[in-house]
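To start, one record:
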Amino acid sequence: MKNRVRYSAGVLLFLLAAGAIVGGIVWQQASKQADWQPFVLKPTTYPETTGSELAGSYYLDKIQPIFNRRCIVCHGCLDSPCLLKLTCYEGLLRGARKVNPDATHLFAEKPVRLFDQPSVTAWREQGFCNVVEQQGPPEERPAKSILFRMLVAGTEHNQPPFELQSLEPIYHSVNKHICPCEQGIDAYLKQRPTAGMPFGMPALTVDENQLFSAWITAGSPGPTAEVMAQVQQLKQPEVIARWEAFLNQDVPLSPLVSRFIFEHAFLATLHFEESPGEYFRLVRSTTPPIQVKNDADGKQVVTASPVHEIKTARPYNNPYLKGVDKFYYRLKKVTESRVQKSLFVWQLSDDKLKHLDELFFQVESVAGKSLEPGYSSQNPFEVFQAIPARSRAQFLVENSHLIVSGMIRGPVCVGNLATYAIKDNFWVFFVDPEHDPSVLKPELGLQSWEDFMNYGLEGNAVYNDAYFKVLDQYKPTGYEINDVWDGNQQNSNAWLTILRNETNATVLRGRQGGIPPTFWLIDYSGFERLYYSLVVNYEYYGSVAQKLDTWEFMSRLRQEFEDNFLRLLPVDARKKYRDLWTRGIGQELLFRMPFPGENVGEGLEVEGTDPISGVLSQIQRQFTEAVSGPRDLLNTGNKPDVKLTDPVKNFADWEAALSTLTMRTQLKFTPFLPSNTFIRLTKGEEHRVYSLVANRSYAFNNVVFDENGARQPELDTMSAYHGLVGDFPNLIIDLKIEDASACLTELNAISTTEEWTAWKNKFGTLRNSVAFWPMLDWLTDWNFQNRQPDAGYFDLKYYMLLESKY
């Protein structure tokens, strides 16, 4: 029999509960239910008991750190399994529910966001069940708590090494969760004894289980009011005061500008250089902005009302709800744990504040256009007419990483169907607002603003016809190299690298990962249409018909942006590359898309026989490395003269050998490679971190349910990166320098599933191994030490199981 520690559920429950009681850590809850106020949970208050380990910040110091490292790897997002979100105490109290509004359904559901309901009772009315028992005799609470019983089941069945076969069927129907609240925890575990937590990963330690036992026995207390007041206290209130003052100016254009900024940043996490380590969300609130003044003695006096967020389904919905006569834009401090998959940071500073003031307030508003941010319209082209189109376009391109991140890191964190609307690897450029036809003539000659946002095939054709007429008017010879925005040769938002990783996507600034197969050139009106369709107007809780409409519109926008880039190519090369980028049935579906053919512009004059390389060379020269970043030696086209079998003695040897495998087609192993692989390479006491990303090729991306039918595995490639790229690692490799040559040599030799499995088992850190948590903890610590302020906890929902078939 394999050596493993085994416990029966009854024995473990007895030992842990007894340990808690004997240790004198049995508490009784002072109140039956934590009180709620609108929008914000009040921390539970417990009687002060001298010497008690559970008073004050026990939850934040002892319990939440375990959730962070062991639980929010799956339960950290809006669409977590059973909707159990453990990034904060409020999510724990809300509990779990089966029905997922992001799943496929004929009719729209209601959105389910953590702070939408005013009380736990309201969540219970929506079908959420408690996962920790807070009532009844203290010694019985662990046995009656779903959370603890699932941890016990994990302790029984997930002692490394344990079998993984029983997990696989669950990943074939990931949105059909069966939650313990439906049938009771006893029946649930009897039917699924191996479904303990952490799911399919090594169990918690005995010490960690004892912490949970003691805490649940005590009534699962949260942080006290005093502790939460300290957590929510602003370190630099004057910084926040400056920004809230900017967003609530008493000038005519301010409400419209603030609405524009809000609708483009409502999903982002804001971080300020002058207040490092603090994170905020931009919200609409019924309470006025913070005020910071100095008294007669020069002492700082802070006047601050709590943020009472106005919750609406979409950011453009009317905030004047019942009882709301006036609202303000406020910065709400984020205190819950940050998960990498939904975290995207808008890095701000006093310099950016000054620039935003110049961009929006040191210009004349458009004469004759309404300054009122009325909420009768949801169309950005109509609503924001009074803000000069140049200012709006400049904001988008200067903050393109923010805007694109909103599209790919929204509240729903897993969705391979949605991501299939884009290709696996491409670069994005932008039309310079000074030369952009949709900036120079914002109406584009259209009869109605609705024509900008018509998602239908006919409506899109009307928009395209109007756009191309204006383009021909302003650019009769087509786009030139100076029409591509260069970021003023300092802003890396001018050049984005986009990676699709099957269930999710990643956006990077600058030229990364080697030359991809396709490219986008985005104009202002197209960028705004893309953002509003995928973010502001998108309803993750919507019907399947609504989601398909959005998906089809995204497919057409992708084609428009690819065609825009093709306009830079010589005329006689355009059709060749369009046919190459979209093959088979995909070409038949493009019959309504205007094509930049022989009669549309002249394109750039390029040197050599490869027009793509010629265009990219001109872009690189204009942008400089300040925008693109340094030359990417890991993914270079000029491969070094080394062999995989050569000894790898140092990190330079490793990078040279690795680069011989990157961005190459016709390799046998690439179809087996998972989307994201993290590698820790160790030489002596020194560690370096790398990421391998699989770039899968598809003949077309135009048929929503035919992803596998479009596969071209022989054209798959692998790209490599310094550091950690991607939020969902599918495999982690802990590699010593002396094994590096064998690792790459054997990887390159893989051509069958059996060979891939053997390689993965040899070099990978398996999710059922003793080494799994220590390795992940090391990478998590590296992430927080090296990627601030953009660091969060990784997602492991598909670790070792997402290999193109789930």
